[in-house]
Amino acid sequence: MRRFVLGVMALVAAGMPMAASARWADWPPGPTDAELEQVVRVAYTAAAAHARGNTNYFARDGVFDPLRSAVEDELGRQGLTFVNVVGEPAASLDVARLCAAEGTELRIGVNLFGDGIDLAVATDERVFSYHYEPRENAAVVVAPAAPCERG
Prior knowledge:
Layout: H1 2-13, H2 33-52, H3 65-77, E1 83-85, H4 93-96, E2 104-110, E3 117-122, E4 126-132, E5 141-147
Parallel strand pairs: 1-2
Antiparallel strand pairs: 2-3, 3-4, 4-5
Helix pairs in contact: 2-3
């Protein structure tokens, strides 16, 4: 134990970073399944708050940027700034669930009427998503983390 403590002290004295101070997203294999779920939960909470202030619409008449900004702002407030929120709406849930080329991407899709939403966070290996379509189901459909498909 003494050798370990001395070794750690030597690393600190040398100015080398310690693993405990690094963000989890910096370490392979990337975010855990629980962390992917956290990103989607935060995004959905922000999207729902945005909809409440927008006559219960996530996006209306093709206006997507306020929704995207609300989600991105809340991710920032929660310290999830490493997540890249894609700038254009996803064409479908299947497209949103494709693997990310690099990093961690959050894709947002809205239905034709603007009252339904898809949220998917993907890495180059895993994906987690929420799907809410009020004409299909009154509940949010959660797809637990799973391997993603390459596009």
